[in-house]
Amino acid sequence: MKTEAAILVETGKPLVIAELNIPALKPGQVLVEIAYSGACGTQVMEVRGDKGEDKWVPHCIGHEATGTVLDVGAAITKVKSGEKVVLSWIKGTGIEAGGSVYEWNGRKVNAGAVTTFQRHSVVSENRLTPLSDDMPMDVGILLGCAAPTGMGAIFNVLQPKPGDTVAIFGTGGIGLSACMAAAFAGSTVIIGIDPSPQRRALAQKYGATQVIDPASSDVVAEIKRRVPGGVDIAVEATGIPSVMSEAIHAVRMQGGRAVVIGNAKLGLTLTLNPGVFNQGKSLMGTWGGDSVPDRDYARFSRLLTSGRFAVRDLLSTPYPLSAADQALQDLVSGKVGRPLIDMSL
User: Fold this and answer.
1) Would you call 342 helix, strand, or coil by DSSP?
2) In terms of CATH architecture, what is 147-290?
């Protein structure tokens, strides 16, 4: 069986549309027909080479999608043929079957345990979660990365109390998910900070009560003008070390907490005055919002389909697989909240 994929052949170069031969399933692997794939800053970093030397090229990319199970390898118990599923980079229960090797005109094409910029994908069982019947397949891509990372950062890591004040640095898909979660948690002030006017507008649709353009003001000073003393909690979703510093400086003394989600480019460092810790502030990290797919994805699904927010508007106009590069460019420029790649186009 063959499939079409957008693969990374050389960092810094456009993705290549290739016809791949699908390998036989190993125990613990599942063949999924992809319906929709999302795209994240992680793919941008991979394509640009921001993570350093890529020893695996050529390889498949993408880590969030929805699809339908076509076939299962030996020992699979979590999903079955015909079932709709979410594909996610965050590990859940099930077998860790590792990656695969596809074949392209006599060349090997590597793939991790989950890849999604393709029409069919061989996926490790533990990267799949059944999709609830009331979750549309397009909106469901948010469960693969943006929702568990952004919502999880709020619900699992920061755990705000009703009435807490929040600053969210970076209002792409993950930051917008954090905005929604903060609103669901009863936060009274939610400040979205982003240089993109489109993303600031989206933030106000998805829970932000106020927004700040970091290009036109001293962000920390402006936050403290609006919330004297600083906010209770902050989410950093940009991957920029200077913004990470702003996040910890924007929270209040004696209990203010900031969590870093964004991935920084290889080689960058974060410098802080250690006095912030003597002020009783905490700077925290997270791995995918500390989310556990089998515990959290059903809850996030209910929130996304609750009707409180027009979640589908967060997604871009669908791109065909052949325009995967354009989807990544539009993500970088801030034109879209979350790119949506439709495999039917």
Assistant:
1) strand
2) 3-Layer(aba) Sandwich (3.40)
pTM exceeds 0.85 for this model: yes
pLDDT tens for residues 47-106?
999 999 999 999 999 999 999 999 999 999 999 999 999 999 999 999 999 999 999 999
Mean pLDDT by 10 residues, the chain (345 residues): 98 97 98 98 96 95 98 98 98 97 97 98 98 96 98 98 98 97 98 96 97 96 98 98 98 98 96 96 98 97 97 96 97 93 98
pLDDT, tens only, 170-181: 999 999 999 999
Q: Does residue 5 contact residue 15 with C-beta atoms inside 8 Å?
A: no
Domains 2-138+315-342 and 147-290 share a fold: no
Helix, strand, coil shares of the chain, percent, nearest 5, are: 30, 25, 45
Read off the tokens for 58. Answer: 């050529």
Torsion of CA 324, 329, 332, 333, to 10 degrees: -140
Burial of 36 (0-12, 13-18, 19+ CB in 10 A): buried
CATH hierarchy code of domain 2-138+315-342: 3.90.180.10
In the three-class reduction of DSSP (H, G, I as helix; E, B as strand; rest coil), residue 34 is classed as: strand
CA distance linking residue 168 with residue 190, whole number of Å: 7
The per-residue pLDDT of the chain, averaged, comes to 97
Q: Report domain extents, the chain.
A: 2-138+315-342, 147-290
